[in-house]
Design goal:
Strand content: 15-25%
CATH topology of the largest domain: Rossmann fold
Number of strands: 14
Strand order of the largest sheet: 3-2-4-5-7-6-12
Radius of gyration: 19 Å
Length: 324
């Protein structure tokens, strides 16, 4: 039986395990040492590993990632924390023009084993630039691995697997799930880039990642009460996609609905819909449908419940799929 952790505490434990295992692993970001980060995910690490390895940086995201690139070239494995999803944009050029390109630019001679941790999504009643879902920007960039944990067990193991990767990893953490608790196993149940089938379904399958996995599970449970068998897949990895698992569930249920907090316009759901349609066209009984946020800037906190996907909107999409 594993230890029970909240998701944020599980990431802390995973960081601690990685830093204990390898002295070249360092953690850096704004207020992460003395404060333990805005969400206290790095709480206590500076006490145990010192401020040479848990580094409070200036408020300069481009400087954080640029410094991490230099450290990685000298043999370190930096883990950068971006305080909020919407704060990553000053570092965008460093990430897509330098971090993602270095291995190809050097014809494989150089690698940058850097993890960029980004709290993602809404649901916490925050102000502007604190609730964005910008994973499509980075998934579109060749050379980056993009993953998204949804539960404490995955959070604990995936952060360690990401740190061990020799490729740069953008690691999304669903901030409204930081306090969700569950048992954490001693060993990972799957590789970093493998999707998880959380619930089998024969009528329809919901594909979600990060913060919307719990919402999808709630929707599947509601559909079960109405007599429908709805499966749930936790994507876990956004780039690369686990296409074999997507093909498998599409063949089993013949209907797929993709759920994410980002806008459906050019979002991850569009790539999933295209992949499933291209590879499983004759297995499908309905087009792949998408449920996401609207193609608008993130609204004020008092309106976010209307903006984000919820159980009712997911059930409406399932009903639409079943009625084709």
């Amino acid at each position: 039986m594993g230890t029970k952790y909240a998701l944020g505490a599980a990431i802390n434990a995973g960081l601690r395990a990685a830093m204990t295992r390898d002295e070249k692993v360092i953690v850096m970001g704004e207020d992460i040492a003395t404060l333990g980060g805005v969400f206290r995910v790095t709480d206590g690490l500076a006490d145990d590993f010192g401020t040479d390895r848990v580094i409070d940086t200036p408020l300069a995201e481009s400087g954080i990632v640029g410094t991490a690139i230099g450290l990685a070239l000298r043999g370190y494995r930096p883990v950068c924390e971006i305080q909020f999803d919407g704060f990553v944009y000053p570092a965008f050029d460093q990430i897509v023009s330098q971090l993602a390109k270095m291995r190809a630019r050097s014809q494989g001679r150089l690698s940058l084993p850097i993890v960029i941790r980004i709290p993602v999504g809404g649901g916490i009643g925050a102000v502007e630039h604190h609730s964005e879902s910008n994973e499509a920007y980075f998934a579109h960039t060749a050379g980056l691995r993009v993953v998204s944990c949804s539960n404490p067990d995955d959070a604990f193991h995936m952060i360690q697997q990401a740190i061990q990767s020799d490729d740069p990893v953008v690691f999304y953490e669903p901030k409204r799930r930081y306090w969700d608790k569950a048992e954490v196993s001693d060993e990972p149940s799957r590789s970093l880039h493998e999707a998880a089938v959380l619930r089998e379904g024969t009528d329809c399958t919901l594909v979600a990642h990060g913060p919307t996995v719990t919402t999808a599970l709630d929707a599947a449970a509601a559909a079960h009460e109405d007599g429908f068998s709805v499966g749930v897949v936790d994507l876990r990895t956004i780039s690369p996609l686990d296409a074999p698992t997507l093909r498998k569930v599409a063949a089993q249920s013949h209907r797929v609905v993709v759920v994410h907090e980002a806008s459906t316009f050019l979002g991850i759901g569009a790539e999933i819909a295209a992949t499933v349609t291209e590879e499983c066209f004759y297995e499908l009984e309905a087009p792949v449908l998408r449920v996401g946020a609207y193609n608008l800037p993130y609204p004020p906190a008092h309106m976010e419940d209307r903006f984000l996907p919820n159980v009712d909107r997911i059930i409406e999409a399932v009903d639409a799929s079943l009625n084709y």
